[in-house]
Amino acid sequence: MSRCSWRSFASKVSSLRPHALAVLVATLAGCGGGSPNGGGFGGFPPAPVTLMVVKTTTVPMRFEFVGQTAGSKEAEVRARVQGILEKRVYQEGGRVTAGQTLFVIDPKPYAVQVAQAEAALAQAQAQHAQAKRNVERLAALAAQEGGAAISRREYDDAVSAEESAAAAVKLAQARLAEARLNLSYTTVTAPVAGYASRALKSEGSLVSPGPDSLLTTVSQIDPLYVDFGISENERLRMNRLIEQGKLVPPDAKRGQEVSLRLADGTVHPRRGKLAFIDARINSQTGSFDARALVPNPDGSLRPGQFVRVLLDGGVRPGVIVVPQRAVMEGPQGKFVYVAAKNDKGVDVALPRPVTAGDWVEIDGANQWIIESGLAPGDAVVVDGMAKIFPVPGGAPIVIDAAPGTDAAKGAAKK
Q1: Which residues, including other chains, have CB under 8 Å from residue 412's CB and lie 6 or more apart?
Q2: What is d(CA 159, CA 29) in angstroms, rounded to the nearest whole number?
Q3: pLDDT (tens digit per residue) in 94-123
Q4: Average pLDDT of the segment spanning 131-151
Q5: Hey, what's the torsion of the CAs at 316, 317, 322, 323, to 10 degrees?
Q6: Nearest to 16 by CA among 28, 24, 8
Q7: How confident is the model at residue 91 (pLDDT cuts 50, 70, 90)?
Q8: Has residue 36 got a pLDDT over 70?
Q9: Do residues 143 and 164 share a domain?
Q10: Residue 400 has what pLDDT?
Q11: What integer best gives the mean pLDDT of the chain?
Q12: Torsion 148-153-158-159 (CA) sign
């Protein structure tokens, strides 16, 4: 090592602040120069790094949003008549079919009303029959001897009575239909097939029509809706990329495919389609409401789940991507290390400011899309950045061609 001891150097480094980088450089310079062969700075060996020569490529785009599942049909089951709730005849949270009985309201008062309406109808029908016979009898008398046997008024009164009796029959029939309908409402059934929620009223409760009439809900979950929001900034950015030709949207006939990432990180095996994106901005959320339709035949997804919506949004042609680990954050923003040769022919790593775009997943690894700062052919450091010590003129490096990577010795440009 040089004439300054390692312990002295370590004590100086431990007391430094970020603004004292210049002091550190001066200290290292005073401790001694690099190795005769142009190696490490201040006695440190060159950092072994792995390089990747970047090039333009076409990458699929995937946008991620927070969403919540909802039944494609959310049916409210409500009491339509007043009465005592006798029993619940379904399993809470279980699957039900359309028309299946869910609750039974005490039917006895409504059965009595049906009997009364049936009796009233029979009475009205009897009165109508009597009025009809009376009209027929008077009509026969009116036909004898020129109608001298009865007055015209008597005949008209009989006809009016028969018509009133006929109307009374229709009224009694309507009341009977109403009574039978109310009796049928004492059996509360599922309006759609799906999964029934918990019962909001227990047996013995008094239920009645009105705001407090909700008994439970039934959710149809195949297919399943997934509601999510697209921020105004994100929508504008996507439209701008399409206008600039930097984003090729998916085929309109095929539609945009949607995947769901669940709370445990797994991806739902069935893919869905984007149903719609609202043309208006939701004034409460400041985003565009969107909805996806996902098949759910096995019922593995339930309404109310929070999921990550993965929206396949076409492809980005002619872009440069680098591994996520190669992009670092500095005081002036994001940067990467690019390999080059200094005036002495030594391989060094130079920081290069970049503008990073979206993340994309390629072969299971996260990559940054680099919007600006890199050109095809640049050799970017993808491994060993932690060992690079930034110094003026570039940090000396040793290029390591690791198996299975695009790195190779001599990749650095002069």
Answers
A1: 51, 339, 340, 341, 347, 379, 399
A2: 126
A3: 999 999 999 999 999 999 999 999 999 999
A4: 78
A5: 50
A6: 24
A7: very high
A8: no
A9: yes
A10: 78
A11: 84
A12: positive
Same domain, 232 and 279: yes
* DSSP SS3 for 389: coil
Residue 245 is part of a domain; what is its CATH number? 2.40.30.170
Distance, in Å, from the CA atom of 13 to the CA atom of 116, rounded to the nearest integer, reads: 100
Number of folded domains in the chain? 4
| 160 and 232 both lie in a single domain | no
List the structure tokens of 155: 């005949």
Do residues 57 and 321 make contact, with C-beta atoms less than 8 angstroms apart? yes
d(CA 360, CA 321): 9
Domain that holds residue 136: 75-219
Going 361 to 362 to 366 to 372, the CA torsion angle's sign is negative
Is the torsion defined by CA of 67, 68, 71, 74 positive or negative? negative
Tokens 């609202």 locate to 278
Q: Identify the residue whose tokens are 């797994």.
A: 266
Q: Which of 291, 315, 339 is the last residue of a domain?
A: 315
Report yes or no on 105 lying in a domain.
Answer: yes
**For 295, phi and psi rounded to 5 degrees?**
-65, 140
What percent of the chain clears pLDDT 90, i.e. is strictly above it?
Answer: 52
How far apart CA 208 and CA 180 sit, in angstroms, is: 17
Whether the Cβ atoms of residue 114 and residue 180 lie closer than 8 Å to each other: yes
- The lowest-confidence range among 73-82, 198-207, 232-241, 256-265 is 232-241
Helix 108-142 and helix 152-184: axis angle, to 10°? 160
CB 348 within 8 Å of CB 398: no
Is residue 43 very low, low, confident or very high in pLDDT (cuts 50, 70, 90)?
Answer: low
Place of tokens 């008062």: 109
